[in-house]
């Protein structure tokens, strides 16, 4: 019964964390981690768990990543890719190099520097969107660019994790052939997912698939409509694609995210059952963000055992890492938005600030590197956790600080008389 008591304390902590997140307007992830550290350091929960809680935590991050992919509209994502590739590339390369250089300076270990760089690569889009929503900017052009760039960053980061973690672990001799083999497995995974999304899932099958007896008659729509078990169907899909990703060297969360990304709302609209998508999404979000998904972050936070000698010793590391990532992230994303995305400077700076957050994927990488593979030293782990915390705090602060300048610039560009709508809203935006 002890694991169930452990789970009960975790759910109490999740409830308290959500209240604190609402009061402080910070992402709940920050408070989940803090609550996990509090539980383990006060002895309420054991420092080391049996298999039940870590397994539930793994399921939690799979559900979270699937829910994030499920939330993203594929058409909107593809529509904005051409305008956002520069923000995604330079906005990810800059923090990677900055974190790598800082880690190399302090610890001078290739594997630690590599994982620090990967941790600081992906953007916490959920935190940024919440911050923009609180300022009334959730439908602005910068929100669309940040969303698309963050998704591209996440996909690229997940691919890099699959390729570079085996290199960092060093279980086998690192050679050009082994790196090519790892990259080939990554490419194979994305090809399989692309085939599912482009040819097998759509109901209006085309080309040679019309000659396949079962596929030409039934599509994903029929499977989702079967017995009104659409939630079970999509969660099973997330788990199966996650297991496929694991077999090909990815973290299962990678597969879950891609499974969510290739599902479209129209797949749920068979026999005029248009409520099934919203019902399924509501259930998936509830499971992922309310009671199972948070277990991952609380369990990860439980590894932050307070050792004042370590905490004091990493203060310079945190200051340097935070300053470097903040400066480089803001500058590279803003410059890319200005010169590759055609944005004006007020919008470009808002994008730079919006790309500062570090949440789900950063903690997935930390979990892989510190908990699962023992790549990070305890000092590096604490430094990354503290840096991610400070960067997350800076997102709502910098967005609120820059908002008057951005709104003034958008109002100056609006034709008179105004056609209405949200500030700076793009006319071609999908409803």
Structure description:
The protein is mainly alpha-helical and 431 residues long. The protein is built from 18 helices and no strands. It has helices spanning 2-24, 28-41, 52-71, 74-107, 110-119, 125-134, 141-169, 176-200, 220-225, 230-247, 252-262, 275-291, 293-301, 308-313, 315-339, 345-354, 360-372, 378-413. Helix 4 packs across helix 7 and helix 7 packs across helix 8 (176-200). The radius of gyration is 22 Å and the shape is globular.
Which stretches are low in confidence, meaning pLDDT under 50 for 5 or more residues running?
Answer: 418-431
Shape, principal axes of CA atoms: globular
Helix content: over 70%
| Total strand segments | 0
Indicate the structural class: mainly alpha
Helical segment tally? 18
Q: Sheet with the most strands?
A: none
Q: Please give the CATH architecture.
A: Up-down Bundle
Q: What is the N-to-C order of secondary-structure elements (H for helix, E for strand)?
A: HHHHHHHHHHHHHHHHHH
State the CATH class.
Answer: Mainly Alpha
Topology:
Elements: H1 2-24, H2 28-41, H3 52-71, H4 74-107, H5 110-119, H6 125-134, H7 141-169, H8 176-200, H9 220-225, H10 230-247, H11 252-262, H12 275-291, H13 293-301, H14 308-313, H15 315-339, H16 345-354, H17 360-372, H18 378-413
Write a brief caption for the model.
By secondary structure, the protein is an all-alpha fold.
Task: Spell out the key features of this protein.
18 helices, 431 residues, mainly alpha
